[in-house]
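Next up, a specimen:

>
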Amino acid sequence: MKKILLVLSVFFLVTRFCFAYQEIISERAYNQAVYDLGEGRKGYKIHSAHIHYKDSNGRFQKINTALSFDANERRWKQSSASYHCGIPEYADDWFEFNNAYEGASHTIKARPVCGHVKGKYFKDADGSVYVLYKNAFGPDIDLKVYAYWAGLKKVICINKKPSDISKDLVFKFEMDLPDKVKDKNGTSWDKRSALDFKGKTLKIGEEGKESYFRDALIWDSAANKHIVENDELKGISQSVDIQFYTKGGKTYLQKIVPSEILQKAIYPLYTDHPTSFFASSGDGYVLATGYNWSTLVTQPNGTALGYTDSVVTCVFCTRGAMGSRTICRGFFPFDTSGLGAGANIESANFNIYVVDVYVDEPDYPYVEMVQAWQDSPTELVLSDYSHVNWSRVATGTNYNSITEGAYFVKALNADGLAFINKTGWTKIALRDQHDYYGILYSQYYPWHVNGLNTRMSEYTGTDNDPYLDIITSPAGGGEQPALINACLNEQFNKGMEE
């Protein structure tokens, strides 16, 4: 009888919380929603990406990138984000991106040099929306155009190995751009010569109100999967050759997929070039590869990084062929300034959506969450590899307890709660336990790995972002924070689906 009464008590408590939560609309920010939990408590959902935009009256509204077809203009449109777009019915027509973020007002247009192929609209279960143009660039080469929170992603999908892989594949888009095009350092493009921007970000438009052409990537179906064939690690994920040039009074964007990639790729093979109103969210990874373990753990700079990928191996350690080893550290910055200096933090959870879990090494199969201080919250640089420490913000978690295809939710410890920056950015990193303790990864087998693949803020849907949920209370308050967090998560997720 006592157990039954206890269960009923918890049920009614959960029910009361779930139906009592009201969003505090006035405390919305681009990346946060705030809920009134009663008795002076508040629940904060703080994302690494934007979840709101400002309407024409300057009020924050929920982002909704669902596309509707305009029968008169023969194109799909959306206007419920910090940009508006027009996606044509046929692939060889003009794609339009209008920046409406914080006073910007300019339009970027792109017209693929491709076949006259009719598009079809799709909406996936995870919230991703896109228009697919089958065989737009020839047999088995599709064009897929996503509308996501920050802008448009034009993804070329090479579904099968081309019949002739001795030649590079070249893709072109005619462009209509604002006059000002600058690189990250502020150097303007002289249109009399080609502008190569492989691995770089371009700023387009008026100073302070720019749009961005972000790092264009190429990746294959084995990227981040740690697939080994004939003692060789498979997988491609890197920047792709891309440039602007002018010809006959017109401006073109050109991408080149080199033949050596076509030869070794695991198909389908993909390449994109995002156009966005936002520089970036700096969640991603920095890794280092070498042969001397003690040097690898303590060296100041990494050897590779990624922060514009939608799905990455955000943390891992591995031993490769011939004794090489790799350490990968994941970075997750959150703008927590909306809390305010006077906030009394009662509890907080860190949330990331896990795609794959790798646990090949039986020794030290744990992931550690630590404090970080990456240079910029909107990008990563190689020196951020060493911008992590050994101060845990949560207890270590065994990889075997983490579920694939679901959120990994971890409560912050007392040090983690104290680390939250109430007036700025809170920066968290993930480290494999071999890396954390500096323990040499064993030599059981080459290519074996412990780690996680996770979805990042670049993922096209809004349901899988990394985020923090934080509960604040009046000084001295504090009851059932875990219960409140669980119910708040459920209500928030339902709210984001509406």
